[in-house]
Design brief:
Elements (H helix, E strand, L loop, with lengths): L2 E6 H5 L11 E9 L5 E6 L4 E3 L2 E3 L6 H13 L1 E16 L4 E16 L6 H5 L2 E6 L1 H14 L3 H22 L4
Parallel strand pairs: 1-6, 2-7
Antiparallel strand pairs: 2-5, 3-4, 3-8, 6-7
Helix pairs in contact: 4-5
Length: 175
Amino acid sequence: MQLIRKITDNDILGSPLELLDTISRHGSRGVLVDSQLQVAMMYMSKTNLYKLPGGGVDKGENSKDAFLREIQEETGYDAEILHELGYIEEHKNRNKFLQFSYCYIAKAHASFRDTMLTDNEIQLGMVVQWMTLHQALAVMQESVLNCTDYSAKFMLLRDKTILEEAARILTGEAV
């Protein structure tokens, strides 16, 4: 899998570039589309921010299975992976936390089940909102510009990067 981007405190705070060398967490996330290329965005009403579906890779689980599980838990849809995008490294020096996120594009199937949100996701008021790729890019950009939380800035920059990579592949155009 190819490296898409390294996100560091330099990107978030403008501080000197420092890379961590011990991985704290593996994540799996990406862009979920339907048959009309509408994108599933996870809206968190408590913070008024958007993110892509995804989460941690459980012990013994591969990253593709983790992404499909996270899609089902967060959106209620079964899906199939269409494309492997690559991975993103998040070097959060302030927290001494390095996350590798494996990134994909997946297509939702028509079947729908109840979501299985975590208590934290419920507290954040997380719901899925379907929108065009253009709208998804716009709400991600707005979220990046309006966010002031250190860790959330990493998440938003990561998800914006994933969305831009997916848009390039889905539309065949540079974003």
